[in-house]
């Protein structure tokens, strides 16, 4: 069968734009107590896709996020982000890629206690530095996540859902290509959980982000484009 130019272009953009893990394995611990946290994982997440990762406790979900986010080097395998071989980047350049191209959202929002919502975003832009993309306007972004009217509040003056929204805005303000999200609804009620994951889906689609969300919350999977399951460090569709 011959491939049309369109098919070839589609394939090229799938393989270069977004996250690609190839034959990734990760062994943790040492001596007699080693654990295979990731076992020959292949995963491609194109820009514009919200992927959910589910699986039992200890199956390797956090390890997957840590490797995808260049926080831990795998024992073997390759990690590409937008066509860049992440593991080939040396110290400073890998850290710069992480700051400029990858956004992280954690369970509790992980905001800095002393900063207002607006300053959380300004600080993230400052840390990412001027070499990366200019970033999004913090005020507009806070409006878009429904937090414009609380831009001057500090984390302790916000609800769990509001903190999560600010955490998402902070992760997106640097226009990352990859967004890694760990249990964003763990502290939220059902209605807030849906709102937060709907927000993640909208941002993923509108801004062409490759988003990987680890969750135990099967209720919110309907908002995701694809769901994969981890078990004993292995991935299945
Ligand atoms: N620093 C470490 N040293 C040794 N083993 C570790 C370390 N961190 C994690 N592990 C082990 O690696 C495996 C995968 O852990 P991981 O945290 O990735 O799972 P998880 O699916 O995210 O679990 P949970 O849903 O409970 O957060 C588990 O068996 C865990 O005990």
From TrEMBL:
It comes from the Bacteria. Signal peptide: none annotated. SUPFAM superfamilies: P-loop containing nucleoside triphosphate hydrolases (SSF52540). This is ABC transporter ATP-binding protein. Residues 19-237 form the ABC transporter domain. PROSITE patterns: ABC_TRANSPORTER_1, ABC_TRANSPORTER_2. Keywords: ATP-binding, Nucleotide-binding, Transport. It holds the Pfam family ABC_tran. InterPro entries: AAA+_ATPase, ABC_transporter-like_ATP-bd, ABC_transporter-like_CS, ABC_transpr_LolD-like, MacB-like_ATP-bd, P-loop_NTPase. GO terms for molecular function: ATP binding.
């Amino acid at each position: 069968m011959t491939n049309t130019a369109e098919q070839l272009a589609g394939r090229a953009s799938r393989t270069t734009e977004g996250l690609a893990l190839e034959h990734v394995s990760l062994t943790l611990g040492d001596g007699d107590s080693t654990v295979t946290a990731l076992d020959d994982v292949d995963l491609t997440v194109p820009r514009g896709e919200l992927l959910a990762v589910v699986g039992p406790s200890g199956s390797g979900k956090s390890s997957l996020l840590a490797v995808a986010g260049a926080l831990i080097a795998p024992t073997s395998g390759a990690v590409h982000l937008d066509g860049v071989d992440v593991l080939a980047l040396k110290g400073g350049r890998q850290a710069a890629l992480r700051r400029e191209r990858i956004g992280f959202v954690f369970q509790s929002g992980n905001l800095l206690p002393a900063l207002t919502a607006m300053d959380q975003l300004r600080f993230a832009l400052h840390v990412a530095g001027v070499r990366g993309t200019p970033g999004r306007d913090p005020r507009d972004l806070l409006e878009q996540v429904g937090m414009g009217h609380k831009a001057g509040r500090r984390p302790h003056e916000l609800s769990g859902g509001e903190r999560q929204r600010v955490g998402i805005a902070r992760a997106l303000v640097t226009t990352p290509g990859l967004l890694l999200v760990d249990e964003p609804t763990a502290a939220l009620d059902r209605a807030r959980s849906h709102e937060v994951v709907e927000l993640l889906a909208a941002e993923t689609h509108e801004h062409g982000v490759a988003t990987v969300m680890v969750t135990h919350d099967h209720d919110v999977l309907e908002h995701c484009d694809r769901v994969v399951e981890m078990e004993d460090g292995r991935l299945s569709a």
